[in-house]
């Protein structure tokens, strides 16, 4: 049983990391804010399944976020021009360092971020995911 203490510590560390990932690094409560870079989905993703299982539809007001539960409503504001949109989280991402949200094509046009591709944004949770919403 010489390795047992090490194995217990490793299991405990793994459980701690899993718990942090499951709860997310931020809060999904209304009023939670986050700032960083925002981008949008390329059209090549049209129709492909999102992490929630719903197909990506550029014409819908949706977004990807790494930790907020699916179904969370957020307001995304383009810090450069002050334009904002309300979107529903239904996917995971973006998977690029420094980026906090990917928005659908429709949301990107309303935010006027298509030409730039990536802009500084502020997001705010305006409605928590319905009970039973998936993480």
From TrEMBL:
<protein>
    <recommendedName>
        <fullName>Probable endolytic peptidoglycan transglycosylase RlpA</fullName>
        <ecNumber>4.2.2.-</ecNumber>
    </recommendedName>
</protein>
<dbReference type="InterPro" id="IPR009009">
    <property type="entry name" value="RlpA-like_DPBB"/>
</dbReference>
<dbReference type="Pfam" id="PF03330">
    <property type="entry name" value="DPBB_1"/>
</dbReference>
<dbReference type="InterPro" id="IPR012997">
    <property type="entry name" value="RplA"/>
</dbReference>
<dbReference type="InterPro" id="IPR036908">
    <property type="entry name" value="RlpA-like_sf"/>
</dbReference>
<comment type="function">
    <text>Lytic transglycosylase with a strong preference for naked glycan strands that lack stem peptides.</text>
</comment>
<keyword id="KW-0456">Lyase</keyword>
<dbReference type="GO" id="GO:0008932">
    <property type="term" value="F:lytic endotransglycosylase activity"/>
</dbReference>
<feature type="domain" description="RlpA-like protein double-psi beta-barrel">
    <location>
        <begin position="33"/>
        <end position="122"/>
    </location>
</feature>
<comment type="similarity">
    <text>Belongs to the RlpA family.</text>
</comment>
<keyword id="KW-0961">Cell wall biogenesis/degradation</keyword>
<dbReference type="InterPro" id="IPR034718">
    <property type="entry name" value="RlpA"/>
</dbReference>
<dbReference type="GO" id="GO:0000270">
    <property type="term" value="P:peptidoglycan metabolic process"/>
</dbReference>
<dbReference type="GO" id="GO:0071555">
    <property type="term" value="P:cell wall organization"/>
</dbReference>
């Amino acid at each position: 049983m010489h390795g047992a203490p090490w194995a217990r510590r490793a299991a405990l560390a793994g459980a701690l990391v899993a718990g942090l990932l499951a709860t997310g690094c931020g809060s999904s409560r209304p009023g939670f804010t986050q700032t960083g870079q925002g981008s949008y989905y390329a059209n090549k993703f049209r129709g492909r399944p999102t992490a929630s299982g719903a197909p990506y539809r550029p014409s819908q007001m949706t977004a990807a976020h790494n930790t907020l539960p699916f179904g969370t409503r957020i307001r995304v504001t383009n810090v450069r021009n002050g334009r904002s949109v309300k979107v529903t989280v239904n996917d995971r991402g973006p998977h690029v360092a420094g980026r906090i949200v990917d928005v659908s094509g429709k949301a990107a046009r309303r935010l006027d971020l298509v030409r730039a591709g990536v802009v500084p944004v502020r997001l705010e949770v305006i409605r928590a995911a319905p009970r039973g919403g998936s993480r």
